Amino acid sequence: MMTKHFFSDTAALLGRSLRHIARSPDTIITTTIMPIAMMLMFVYVFGGAINTGSDSYVNYMLPGILLITVASGIAYTAFRLFIDMKGGIFERFQSMPIARSSVLWAHVLTSLVANLISLVVVVVVALLMGFRSAAGAGAWLAVAGILILFTLALTWLAVIPGLSAKSVDGASAFSYPLIFLPFLSSAFVPTDTMPGPVRAFAENQPVTSIVNAIRALFTEQPVGADLWIALAWCAGILVVAYLFAMNTYRRKIS
């Protein structure tokens, strides 16, 4: 009965959140503008000067742009949570006979839907810019799975400042380091061109393994250990972020 309650309550609250997104499509437009602008700049301004060994620079850097798209999008999750907290929405939900965790899950699933739409838009623009992949359906599904897991991990991370920030700027500003992280990875240039300390960091942070796994899937190359390292990073961040987010939520509503 409790499980049934949770799913029905989450579905109802998810519908509420998705209606807000549908009434404000500018959220998705804003989320996609920066990654698309970066993609245009890197391909048409810097692309000719960067030697990646790839036939097309847009093919090389698209995985990194997809991760930046997600990092940009989850800032809105923190923002929406903060607004609901300050607006007293959570207190009103507490007075209703609904599963408490369904409130957070509705925000998280809304973030997932919105980010998936943004990712599709970015891929369409990349196709118009010359991105091509001979990958089969299985490889595309694997890429989608990695991006979904990555989005869930970062979204639960966004829940923490969304619940605990003191200002609306603080709620969304946490995403800035996440947007910057792909620049210190293999997303835009090979790591072997970097100075020693920077290279050591770049090769041992989560974005590099995720980017390398997605790139290998797109190009039908052997994925190797990168896939398992990428999944381990995403799953680890997801579990830790979820536990911290739920603990923060319990403290806030107690």
From TrEMBL:
Domain ABC transmembrane type-2 per the UniProt entry, residue ranges: 26-252
Subcellular location as annotated: Cell membrane; Membrane
Short name of any one Pfam family annotated for the protein: ABC2_membrane
Transmembrane segments: 28-50, 62-83, 104-131, 137-159, 171-189, 227-245
Keywords tagged on the record: Antibiotic resistance, Cell membrane, Membrane, Transmembrane, Transmembrane helix, Transport
Topology relative to the membrane: Multi-pass membrane protein
Domain of life: Bacteria
Similarity field: Belongs to the ABC-2 integral membrane protein family.
UniProt-recorded name of the protein: Transport permease protein
Originating organism: Nonomuraea purpurea
Lineage, opening ranks: Bacteria, Bacillati, Actinomycetota, Actinomycetes, Streptosporangiales
